[in-house]
Amino acid sequence: MSEDHKHIAGGGGQAARCGFVALIGAPNAGKSTLINQLVGAKVSIVSRKAQTTRAQVRGIAIEGDAQIIFVDTPGIFAPRRRLDRAMVTSAWGGAGDADAVALLVDARKGLDEDVEAILARLADVRAAKILVINKIDTVEPPKLLDIAAQFNDRLAFDHTFMISALRGYGVETMRRQLAALMPPGPWHYPEDQISDAPMRSLAAEITREKIFERLHDELPYQSTVETDIWTEMPDGSVRIEQTIFVMRDGHKKIVLGEGGRTIKAIGTAARKEISEAIEQKAHLFLFVKVRENWADDPERYREMGLDFPK
């Protein structure tokens, strides 16, 4: 936490509470959807693809006198590549620093191999442990009770919540209970701030989400987006230039599409959402560059907010 955020008072004077809740779980458990619901605005990119969240994203929610800072971590999985290792390290780093750690579980998968590995390591985390069973609208109620019992037999969770992040079921109750767990103290952020991600990086994440949505499996995890130029224009609009880095010439052709149609569609969708997020008109210009070894370049990791694994 940077020093300039530590001393912002808020939230009803003496009664104020403030703390961190890390959301952890296997890929595609629904962490990004949940954090957006908890905050009430889009702060984390959502995709059907696993492992779209790469670095820790912080979303800030107000509940009564409490300010809750939710840390959406990358999904925890068995890492194979350098980027994978950096993402998993980031996820556990987020859990280690939090006042409470919420393990999000997909009700359809229950206690599978991915979650087993997380449970084993979660036992050593000192923070309050919260079990959140997500996607409850996809299974029968008796199965939900079995899943809750199974997990609580394995690890003593302080609270268990059953929710549907997508539909919003149970999310308000969860937010109220988490607020009560936060330690007394002044708020870290101004009341109207919903994320600590700079707008430049949120804009890059939005464009990356549109690439995922548009290209599905054609372009696997071989792309990253960086915001190069952010210029406030005299008319109140913003000119944004971004570079999409890919690893192969073939990937560049996929992103551009025939006659530039694909990149135009990505740009249109991203511009609309960026404009909504920053509440300003945005002019977005996208460029595609081939950088074969970007996944081994420490500078790209810094841009993503990740530590470069040796």
Estimate percent helicity.
Answer: 25-40%
What is the quaternary state of this protein?
A: single chain
Mean pLDDT: 77
Query: Which architecture of the largest domain would the CATH scheme give at its second level?
Result: 3-Layer(aba) Sandwich
Number of domains: 2
Counting DSSP H or I runs of 4 or more residues, the number of helices is: 10
GO molecular function: GTP binding; GTPase activity; ribosomal small subunit binding; small ribosomal subunit rRNA binding
Keywords: Cell inner membrane, Cell membrane, Cytoplasm, GTP-binding, Membrane, Nucleotide-binding, Ribosome biogenesis, RNA-binding, rRNA-binding
Subcellular location: Cytoplasm; Cell inner membrane
Membrane topology: Peripheral membrane protein
Could you write a compact summary of the structure shown?
The chain has 310 residues and is an alpha/beta fold. The chain has helices at residues 3-6, 31-39, 82-96, 113-122, 141-154, 171-181, 199-215, 249-256, 261-278, 298-304, and strands spanning 17-25, 57-63, 66-72, 100-106, 128-134, 159-162, 223-232, 238-246, 282-290. Residues 72-75 are annotated as: G3.
Describe this structure in words.
By secondary structure, the chain is α/β, with parallel strands linked by helices. It folds into two domains: 3-181, 3-Layer(aba) Sandwich (Rossmann fold); 199-304, GMP Synthetase, Chain A, domain 3 (2-Layer Sandwich). It contains ten helices and nine strands. The protein has helices at residues 3-6, 31-39, 82-96, 113-122, 141-154, 171-181, 199-215, 249-256, 261-278, 298-304, and strands at residues 17-25, 57-63, 66-72, 100-106, 128-134, 159-162, 223-232, 238-246, 282-290. Strands 2-3-1-4-5-6 form a six-stranded mixed sheet, sandwiched between helices. Strands 7-8-9 form a three-stranded mixed sheet. Strand 4, helix 4 (113-122) and strand 5 (128-134) form a beta-alpha-beta unit. Helix 7 runs antiparallel to helix 9 (261-278). The longest helix has 18 residues, at 261-278. 41% of the residues are buried. Residues 51-55 are annotated as: G2.
